[in-house]
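User: Second chain of the day. Same drill as before.
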Amino acid sequence: MEKFDSMKFKALGKTGERIPAVGIGTWKLGTDRDTEMKAIRVGLELGMRMVDTAELYANESLVGKAIEGEEGVLVATKVSPNHLHADDIENSCNQSLKALGVKTIDLYQIHWPNSKISVSETMAAMEKLVKEGKIRYIGVSNFSVKELEEAQGALKSNEIVSNQVEYSVVVRDPERTMLDYARKNSITIIAYSPLGAGALFSKRLEGLYGILDQIGKKHGKSPAQVALNWLVSKDMVVAIPKASNADHMRENAGGVDFSLDRKEMLGIDSFRVKAAARTSTSRFHTLIKNTAPLWSDFMADRYRKKLQK
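Assistant: Same format as last time:
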């Protein structure tokens, strides 16, 4: 069995829970179940004992199968933005529990905000799930500071422990919109697409890739590992890269067992990616966010049909 003794751990909000600096993302997994489940299990053996999924991804059953029999795994999933009425949240949670094969979801997150549904109703339903023991912690995803404050203000007995946002060397928006608030309020930032959804390896970002490659050679690391290390070196930030095979999972796990010096950090910090070279989700984030309740069911059905082929 593979072991990775150098995994770093960080606080999950104010809970006292320690989570790996690099966990496992699963968006778009499910087309090669055996290979992907093996990759997840390798990741768990290497210390990446946090797995994030969502009802929208239609792959919670794959995650459940991959973690079956494992102990000490923090299981995180997300409820879709069009399921934020109280009855819908309860139904979604019950379905996720069944698909994941767990009695309790460790971190239950609102995938996208929905301004059409009262945040008070939504958060009351989330607190009910905590009280019933169906979930342990409440998180959100793609929330602005204002939306975070409104959601926290609607909670009576619990605190929001995390906000999952797109953050990478390619997409730096959280640095001006979220990180200071997260630090001051002890809210963990879970970075999705931490390698820029593949944009990092594109021709238009050769300059950035070259910087990461140069730094990596000094440490015996790949550019991707340097990018992950830079990201999780930030206070209150953890990352959940996706890996569809065991080799990529091993590479992700190897992104934490070294330290970048101040000069190296500044060298990466100083590179600014032009808007045209950013990921499509970041370029069209406002549109995607505002229409999430409209497209989420369609995308879930699309993923479901794709995975059934």
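The chain has a mean pLDDT of 94.

User: Great, on to the next one.
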